[in-house]
Design brief:
Length: 379
């Protein structure tokens, strides 16, 4: 069986890995460096907590506006797209459809087991299960919210960075750069190919991919995991840009500061600093300087070794999508939990591509009836 995966981010790489493990002849089409955008993530994994992704909760627009007014987020006109905005208004303040929490619980359980298994084989990506501290918020209110959470996260009150913190006990962390190298090595070991080519479009009816130079690639199975660009296939998904820095800072604990919007992950002799949640697909990266300033306010001065930019693909309700559009499988939308759920979403995408299973609660139908299968769409 020949399979094409369009998009070499962490989700696309996991879809390719699962297909290759099933014996498929896999090629990953990526216009840039594989995993380039995914490297920007902090590497925080939150297997039993979804609150960070509830962008359609009633109080979220007001909190995001406050963040934007103080300069820690921005919105670029046209970035979300009209369909995303309309779908957001329909999803705002509503509970997810039936079966969604069961699906999300499985995503977390499966993904944790996959990361653990890979670390047990060789922990060359600094995987560790350790508490995540959340500072700068109302700890009492957060504890009460956790008690009502359908995923039953384990939390407690604690202290970090000289402040009271909410301690999330089911967290884990990894080095995103090291993990990208690890998964690429596994793919090559299974005979999968990484093809540096820009996929310009997809023909969902036939499963063909249009490439630069007028070339067309066909396969028995096509998975499109191209981040926010999958919205061309009718899935409402918008880009939320963020920045990641590998630094020489020495952090004692993994933490998120809700006041400034930064996250810090301690690694061996270094720390990962990330920040911003800009609704922006553009190439102006000047807000990165503000992330560094916020990081130095929290950690003191430090050297910067690497910078990466990422565009988190977010659906209007924050829950991911794995579904079929014609003969093509689309997988996207995990937002801030893209790394957390990538192993499981890649598995679901591979199963659909192999003719197994169904989208269930993660289908795109929750955003309205499908528009029909287009003959050809640009991505």
């Amino acid at each position: 069986m020949r399979a094409l995966v369009v998009g070499g981010g962490i989700l696309g790489l996991f879809a390719a890995l699962h297909l290759a493990r099933e014996g498929a002849d896999v090629a990953v089409l990526e216009r840039g460096e594989p995993g380039e955008w995914s490297r920007a993530a902090a590497g925080i994994l939150e297997f039993t907590r979804f609150s960070i992704n509830r962008i359609s909760a009633r109080g979220y627009p007001a909190s995001y506006l406050r963040m934007a007014l103080r300069g820690d987020a921005r919105i670029r006109a046209g970035a979300p797209g009209a369909r995303w905005v309309l779908s957001y208004l329909r999803a705002w303040g509503r509970e997810p459809p039936s079966g969604m929490w069961e699906a999300v619980r499985w995503l977390g359980e499966y993904s944790r087991s996959e990361y653990r298994a890979m670390a047990e084989a060789s922990n060359d990506f600094e995987y560790a299960e350790e508490p995540l501290h959340e500072v700068g918020g109302d700890v009492g209110a957060a504890l009460e919210e956790a008690r009502r959470d359908p995923l039953s996260p384990r939390v407690e009150a604690g202290e970090c960075c000289g402040m009271e913190s909410l301690v999330y006990l089911d967290a884990a962390r990894l080095s995103t750069g090291a993990f990208i190298s690890r998964i690429l090595g596994e793919l090559r070991g299974l005979g999968a190919r990484i093809v540096r080519a820009a996929a310009l479009g997809v023909r969902p009816a036939s499963g063909e991919v249009l490439l630069e130079g007028g070339r067309t690639e066909g396969a028995d199975a096509v998975v499109v995991a191209a981040g926010y660009r999958t919205r061309a296939l009718g899935v409402p998904v918008a880009p939320f840009k963020g920045y990641g820095f590998l630094t020489g800072a020495r952090a004692r604990a993994m933490f998120v500061d809700l006041r400034s919007g930064i996250a810090v992950v301690p690694l061996r002799g270094r720390s990962k600093l990330t920040g911003r949640f800009d609704l922006d697909a553009g190439g102006d990266h000047s807000p990165a300087l503000r992330v560094l300033r916020r990081g130095r306010e929290a950690l003191g001065d430090f050297a910067v070794y690497e910078m990466a930019v990422g565009y988190r693909p977010c659906t209007p309700d924050g829950f991911p999508v794995v579904d079929r559009v014609g003969s093509v499988v689309v997988a996207t939308g995990a937002c801030r939990l893209g790394w957390t759920y990538a192993p499981a979403l890649g598995r679901l995408a591979a199963d659909l591509a192999l003719g197994r299973g169904s989208p269930g609660a993660l289908g795109a139908g929750r955003f309205g009836p499908p528009r029909g299968v287009p003959e050809s769409v640009p991505i």
